[in-house]
Design goal:
The complex is a heterodimer. By secondary structure, chain A is mostly beta strands. Chain A contains three helices and ten strands, in the order ββαβαβββαββββ. In chain A, β4 and β5 form a beta hairpin. Chain B folds into four domains: 169 residues, no CATH class; 125 residues, Profilin-like; 101 residues, Helix Hairpins (Orthogonal Bundle); 174 residues, Heat Shock Protein 90 (2-Layer Sandwich), CATH 3.30.565. In chain B, the strands form four sheets. A six-stranded mixed sheet of chain B has the order 9-11-12-14-13-15, covered by helices on one side. A five-stranded antiparallel sheet of chain B has the order 3-2-6-5-4. Classes of the chains: A mainly beta, B alpha+beta.
């Protein structure tokens, strides 16, 4: 997880690591779709003995993108939440794009003098179940991979870390 | 007047609780099932966290309550509480009925789920879908291969060189050579279009050409039209040119193919997860039906309680009546057959109570008549020798006989003796009729008994009074003089029973029953015992089997014990001896003694014959 905070905008980058994409490719090539969600929560930190109770969620955002295999064009397609569609013939390019969120702009401006921290989490749904099978999505444990929340302070610049 | 009604109220509260709980359960089921169905319909991920506590806590709570009720029922059965066997049967029957009612429903639901999932997963549908996709794919690939063959064709290459000089003719030739070509577009090396022939939809934006290389170009979709293209480079008059040959797929090809692939996607999912899906559906059925089943079992406890309550009340009341409590009544608000029975029972008990009062009244009159007769008899006995002695003195005095002085002394002595007897009789009667209130103090029982016993062992060396079985530490709150007198009377009674020779055993133990502390004292003789005919009379005033007895000894003992809020009874066997049992409150202050509930210290005579 990487954060860049500017005057008007904060950019976040997140990468899913330590995950074997074999299951994803197997599902995609069977004609199924996968989905990945990048969740970002920004908290304003307070000091003192009541800080555990007074940390306030000031912004939250989730970026979702969906992947599928186009059997006609023999390409991996990534459809972003904005509607933008990306096509990849090479698996490496697809992995690099699908499992990461690069410089995603968050419409949040930190107030001067306040201290903030962010929690980031990635949630991967290997198969997007269609109705009525979507009832299985939470029941099949291996289907949803969710990372732990990763905490980062919100300075101007931060070194890149793995999330 | 006492009544049996309290449990009815608790049953009513229980029933209301169950109804409220049932409504709550139904609302929760409707809300959550609606939520799940809505999630399914909208294709959302079903991960409602509230449903987890609902799924776990609610059945657990119900199971816990049922287990609690089962344990309670089992304990009540072990303790022999009335109605528990009948209640167990009712609960079992209700539970069986609930199971029997839900089993066909469950079988039907599971069968329905199996049939539905099997019909969804029919291989016929799957094959059809796969064939459709395959057909579309084959068609698509053929069109691509056709474009590739055009690109590789020498004829097409030669035709392209003539394209700009004889455009229309060349286009016609191309259409004739390959019917799959729908348009042709020529660009110069800077991406500017120099020529276009064919269907206008096939036209490509010139700028898009800059980023691509020769060969098949990415598919383009405009509204419902899908266009496949191939880019061919050629040289004309020394200039580098590019030709884009397009083929247009049938209208809505893309959307149809997408629909096919989506349907195939669902089918692939259904085929892959058919078993899990079936189990989940069955699980959902049980998830919603199981709490209802548990609730039905819980209701069976309440209903069975409601049903057996009047019967148990009747049984309890009958038992109390048989023990002599005629003040009991059963209250019933219900207007059913059982209420008629209860009403009849209450009437019968009222009649019995009335009869018993009349009987007691008659017994009291008879008892006092008997006492009066005995008093008269006891008073008359000394009067005769007094009268005779007085008459003898008078006769001798009037005759002026010389031996008058010799007769006077024994006659007057006899009169004095008989008057003394009469006085004793009257004192005892007065004492019996009006014993003073006990003056309570803490007394060591063993010391008191040994003190009372020492008088007898001194006067009657042939008897032994055993006191070693009296626990040293026992203290009683009692009037020293009255209790001493009670023991004296009991010892005197025992002494007469063993004819002044033998053993008398005294035993005392501290008994603790809940909050009740009392001392149980046993006075056992090895005498002749009490005959069957006298069992009911020995505590009656002036009843005696002895020549010299006044018949007030045991009556006074009973009276003293009752005044100390204790109880007395005996066990006897003819030829083997008699044991008197006395329970006296122990280890308590005077205030505590006065506050003891008299119901717990039932003052009655219990006579048992071994």
């Amino acid at each position: 997880m990487k954060l860049n905070s500017g005057e008007d905008q904060t950019q976040v980058s997140m990468f899913l690591v330590e995950y074997s994409p074999a299951d994803i490719f197997s599902s995609l090539e069977d004609g199924l779709r996968s989905e990945i969600g990048f969740s970002i929560h920004i908290y304003r930190e307070t000091r003192g003995i009541f800080r555990l109770f007074t940390q306030r969620l000031v912004h939250e955002e989730t970026f979702i993108q969906e992947a599928r295999w186009d059997v006609f064009q023999q390409q991996y397609i990534i459809k972003k939440a904005s509607g933008e569609t990306l096509k990849f013939s090479r698996k490496e390019d697809f992995i690099s794009e699908f499992f990461s969120l690069k410089d995603y702009p968050i419409q949040f401006s930190p107030e001067r003098g306040k201290k903030y921290f962010t929690l980031g989490r990635i949630s991967l749904e290997t198969i997007i179940f269609l109705p009525p099978l979507n009832v299985l999505s939470s029941i099949i444990p291996a289907n949803i991979v969710t990372t732990a929340w990763q905490r980062h302070e919100l300075p101007r610049e931060l070194p890149e870390t793995k999330g | 007047m006492k009544s049996l009604q309290q449990s009815q109220n608790s049953s009513f509260v229980g029933l209301i609780s169950i109804i409220i709980f049932y409504l709550l359960l139904i609302i929760l089921i409707l809300v959550f099932s609606n939520q799940i169905l809505s999630d399914i319909a909208l294709g959302r991920t079903v991960s409602n966290v509230i449903i987890i506590p609902f799924a776990i806590i609610l059945p657990l709570f119900l199971i816990g309550t049922i287990v609690y009720n089962i344990i309670k029922l089992a304990r009540e059965r072990r303790r022999g509480i009335p109605g528990t066997r009948y209640k167990s049967k009712l609960v079992l029957f209700f539970t069986l009925v609930a199971f029997m009612a839900s089993i066909p429903q469950g079988i039907l639901s599971i069968s329905f789920i199996n049939t539905m999932t099997k019909s969804w997963f029919s291989s016929q549908y799957g094959d059809t879908l796969e064939s459709g996709v395959q057909l579309a794919l084959t068609y698509y690939n053929e069109r691509l291969e056709n474009l590739e063959s055009i690109a590789d064709s020498a004829l097409v290459a030669s035709l392209l060189r003539d394209m700009e000089t004889r455009a229309d003719k060349t286009w016609e030739t191309l259409e004739e050579v390959n019917s799959g070509i729908h348009s042709i577009q020529i660009f110069d090396d800077e991406g500017r279009e120099t020529l276009f022939r064919g269907i206008p939809e096939g036209r490509m934006e010139s700028l898009a050409l800059l980023d691509v290389s020769e060969g098949i170009l990415p598919k383009e979709t405009k509204k419902d039209t899908t266009i496949l293209r191939v880019l061919i480079g050629f040289t004309q008059g020394g200039e580098e040119k590019f030709a884009v040959i397009s083929t247009i797929l049938p209208a809505n090809f893309d959307s149809t193919a997408e629909n096919l692939t989506k349907t195939l996607e669902i089918f692939t999912q259904l085929e892959r997860y058919r078993n899990i899906f079936r189990y989940v559906l069955i699980g959902f059925y049980f998830f919603f039906s199981f709490p209802i089943m548990l609730l039905a079992i819980l209701v069976s406890f309440i209903l069975s309680e409601e049903i057996i309550r009047p019967i148990v009340n009747l049984e309890e009341a009958t038992k109390r009546v048989s023990e002599g409590d005629f003040s009991i009544r059963i209250l019933s608000r219900a207007k059913d057959e059982l209420s008629i029975l209860i009403e009849s029972f209450n009437r019968m008990v009222a009649e019995l109570e009335k009869s018993r009062r009349q009987l007691i009244h008659t017994e009291k009159i008879t008892a006092w008549q008997d006492i009066a007769q005995r008093m008269a008899h006891e008073i008359k006995n000394p009067l005769t020798p007094i009268k005779l002695s007085a008459q003898r003195i008078l006769r001798k005095y009037e005759a002026g006989e010389k031996e008058f002085s010799a007769v006077l002394k024994p006659a007057v002595s006899s009169i004095i003796q008989e008057v003394e007897k009469l006085n004793n009789l009257l004192v005892e009667f007065r004492d019996f009729a009006r014993l003073p209130d006990p003056d309570m103090e803490q007394i060591s029982l063993k010391e008191l008994v040994e003190e009372a016993a020492s008088v007898f062992t001194t006067s009657y060396p042939s008897i032994t009074i055993h006191t070693k079985d009296i626990v040293d530490s026992i203290l009683i709150l009692a009037d020293r003089d009255q209790i001493t007198r009670a023991f004296t009377n009991l010892f005197k009674n025992a002494l007469d029973a063993i004819s002044g020779e033998g053993d008398i055993y005294i035993r005392a133990d501290l008994v603790i029953k809940g909050n009740l502390h009392y001392c149980r004292i046993q006075v056992q003789d090895t005498g002749t015992g009490i005959t069957e005919e006298n069992l009911d009379k020995i505590f009656n005033p002036y009843f005696t089997t002895k020549d010299k007895g006044t018949g007030l000894g045991l009556s006074i003992v009973e009276r003293i014990v009752l005044d100390h809020k204790g109880q007395i009874w005996f066990e006897t066997e003819e030829g083997a001896g008699t044991t008197f049992f006395i329970d006296l409150p122990a280890g308590l202050s005077t205030e505590d003694l006065s506050e003891l509930p008299t119901e717990k210290l039932i003052v009655s005579r219990k006579k048992r014959k071994k």
